[in-house]
């Protein structure tokens, strides 16, 4: 069975065919600026990929995906995909069965079935980007939680200033803190701050330590709260 896979991201929409766990025919486009343009791009690409005779469409998306309602709840950098019955709308428009899941959950499920977590009874996954995303897989199934917050590790409070794991546990925010303190008009990347730390820059070393300690504390908390076989 072949599926058309679509990843909805803040900067790009990615398409690929998946057959027996292998991806092919990948393509990528800038994320459309409106729902109408989003629909137009999907119409175009689904028509093009239909030559490969796929049987359904699997979509990974930001936000809290309510699979029972077919609605993407929460918020993201793509506001037009939220808070309406998008799964039903897409099935009626594209004439294929469609499944939608949160992007971090998709990544975790891929690791659990095809990657480093294959064969594990449980795993927790951390996705470090601008913030910290995450997911829990138990007995091969995503744990969504009663309110769709299962695996949202980035909201963990890390200190008495109520700073979150997302604020402290990524190199992106480490670089933002460094740039704000140095205040020389330059926006440093995480890679640049880590390089400065290796050169002995005291402020870079301090911010790197905040990042690493926060990441370690977050992983420690996840391990002792859920006790997954793998992280």
UniProtKB/TrEMBL annotation:
InterPro entries: ATPase_NBD, ROK
Family from the record: Belongs to the ROK (NagC/XylR) family.
Top-level taxon of origin: Bacteria
UniProt name for this protein: Putative transcriptional regulator
One Pfam family in the UniProt entry: ROK
PANTHER family: ROK (REPRESSOR, ORF, KINASE) FAMILY, SUGAR KINASE
Transmembrane segments: none
